[in-house]
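subagent[fold] <- orchestrator: predict structure for attached chain, return tokens only, no commentary.
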Amino acid sequence: MKQVWLVFWKDARNLRTELCVYALLLVAFAVAAPQVRLGQAPSQMLALFVTLLKVLIPACWLVMIARAVHGDNLLGQEQFWITRPYRWQSLLGAKALFVVMFVGLPLALMQWAMLLVAGLNPFADKDGMALTLMRFALHAWLPLLLVASVTENLAMMFTFVAGLMVAWAGLLTFVMSGTDMRMSPPYSLAVFCVVMGGLMVTILIYQYARRRTLRSRWAIVGLLMLFLLMMFGYDRGGFGTPVKVLIRSHYPKASSLRLVFLGSTPYDERGEDMDVPKDMMEVKLPMHIDGFTADAKLRETHVAVEIDSGEVHYALPWESAVVGEHTIGFLMPKRVFNNLAAADAKVHLELVAEEWRPVHLREVRAAAKFDGPMDGACSLIAGKVYCRYPYREWVPTRVEAAACGGGASTVLRHVPAGTVPDPVVIEGLPFKEKVCAGDAMRFTEYGEAGRFRLVMDVDGVRIGSYRGR
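subagent[fold] -> orchestrator:
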């Protein structure tokens, strides 16, 4: 352990200039980013400066990690550290500790400071905080540490990273084309974190223990190929039946709900509810969920559809669906729709969804600053309400307000922060009327009440009659 600390402090001394620059970038971002959020009126130059900082911060990660690792280079046989009684475990531990203490911890402190300034509790959403830092670690810090271990200098590392990113982005675009609507299996994030994170750590340990650089480079390329395979096969349903069965097993059949086929689609629900690509067609089957209470909401709705007309058989993988009061909308290729449009077909449809119910009610008065839902903070600016949240994921909240004597209501969707440096998620409430100071507001927060699956078979369905408008 003593050797780990000696190498760690040696790297800190050698990189004190880079560490000061990194700290300056974080401070500048923490000061400038809040001024360009929704509801503010930033200048174009300030917005450009914040965008530049979002590029410079990851670039600083690359430089610091590369300099730290290359300070005790693994390539070749004539490095100074090889002549010392260094243990590879201590060397790897020192580099990992450097990344945690001088890359990850300053970023976390900067994010917590930004949350406090925004009037939010940094520890109100511990899951969101952990998820954001984990994404940084898996998407940036660990890959950069791995690539630095198989390159000789900063220029070689930059070239290696750029080449991998271009090749990976091109393959990803080609392989994933047309799969955006497909459903992810349960625990897909956990599976990717365990498999990809575990393999990156394994390659890193192998490189430090054996210093077989060529083999480690090929292992990194193979890891990217495996990632694409898992993305297409597992996350996007390319493995077919196994993934469909896995998703189906995660959603028990609902005993108190059932699907009812209505026969015709109400005119006011024929409009398009989904973003339809040019080679796809929206189909809206007239279906109603019987037994669903008025205070409940659906989230993460997906369908798996099989259509058989005798001559044409089409099986739709688990894909996103829009469930209305009297319709279930989903996408299918235009060529398949045209082949099935005029035929009487048998339709087998399975619907999976999460059921959400009200769990918390908060009543407040609109003011310059007031408490919002889910540990958030809201502001009233020129008749518009803006709410801020820490690391917030998608959670529905119903909002009702007097709106200067009139009535207004909406359903909010809180966009997750993801892996961006700014941890504050801000959203404007889309009221049609202005909200005045002192108006009563009611936030109804929803929580997950369970998952369910519904199945229905219908004969004699003419798909061409249910085309979305």
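orchestrator: received. Logging for downstream: The CA atoms of residues 218 and 224 lie 10 Å apart. Residues 88-117 form the longest helix (30 residues).
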